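Teaching assistant's notes for section 4

Start the section by putting this record on the projector. Ask students to predict, before seeing the second block, whether Ras-related protein Rab-4 will look compact or extended. Collect guesses on the board.
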Amino acid sequence: MSETYDFLFKFLVIGSAGTGKSCLLHHFIESKFKQDSNHTIGVEFGSKVVNVGGKTVKLQIWDTAGQERFRSVTRSYYRGAAGALLVYDITSRETYNALAQWLTDARTLASPNIVIILCGNKKDLEGEREVTFLEASRFAQENELMFLETSALTGENVEEAFLKCARTILNKIESGELDPERMGSGIQYGDASLRQLRQPRGAPAPSRQSCGC
Ligand SMILES: Nc1nc2c(ncn2[C@@H]2O[C@H](COP(=O)(O)OP(=O)(O)OP(=O)(O)O)[C@@H](O)[C@H]2O)c(=O)[nH]1
Ligand SMILES: [Mg+2]
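Reveal the predicted structure now:
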């Protein structure tokens, strides 16, 4: 069966090793916790079609390895990503301290316009918390990131994180701030008729028919 969607967005999941990136992606796609998750070797891939603000969006998601030894491989997947989940572990200050570097990589290697949501994962481990909600939300504000605390174990805020990022991208397309036709935007139209989205009210909608050329 062929899938239909209005847009396709390329997403990345980045952050230090062991923060729960693969478990977040697994929960988003399978709606359950991934038992016995091993370190990702290079990159893994997942995709899901979601409904955002009345539009059908296919998210094409690259789950990258956090381990340093894979850095040169994972960096080659950054190019042209429209959105990213930047993940740290609320029980590990070390993973929080590494955020600035991940952010620099994302903005230089993917795109300066990449829409990033910061995810403080393992929210269920409150007793082992090393990073407060407040300090992470300040970091997010200072760096123009959205922010949520998530749990890939309970599923709390997992879907919200992906949807919030997708919704922001869609809003930016609608306002003209993001141009899906720019090379490397990480966005593709699933249906050419949606180009009318960005057309002024009253302008004729592009024809759905193929010209056959
Ligand atoms: N309690 C709890 N444990 C989690 C959560 N998310 C992941 N874990 C555990 O954290 C460990 C690492 O999870 P992964 O998803 O493999 O981490 P990763 O970020 O993909 O790691 P790399 O692939 O090496 O970059 C696993 O033992 C998971 O069971 C969570 O939300 N809560
Ligand atoms: Mg992984």
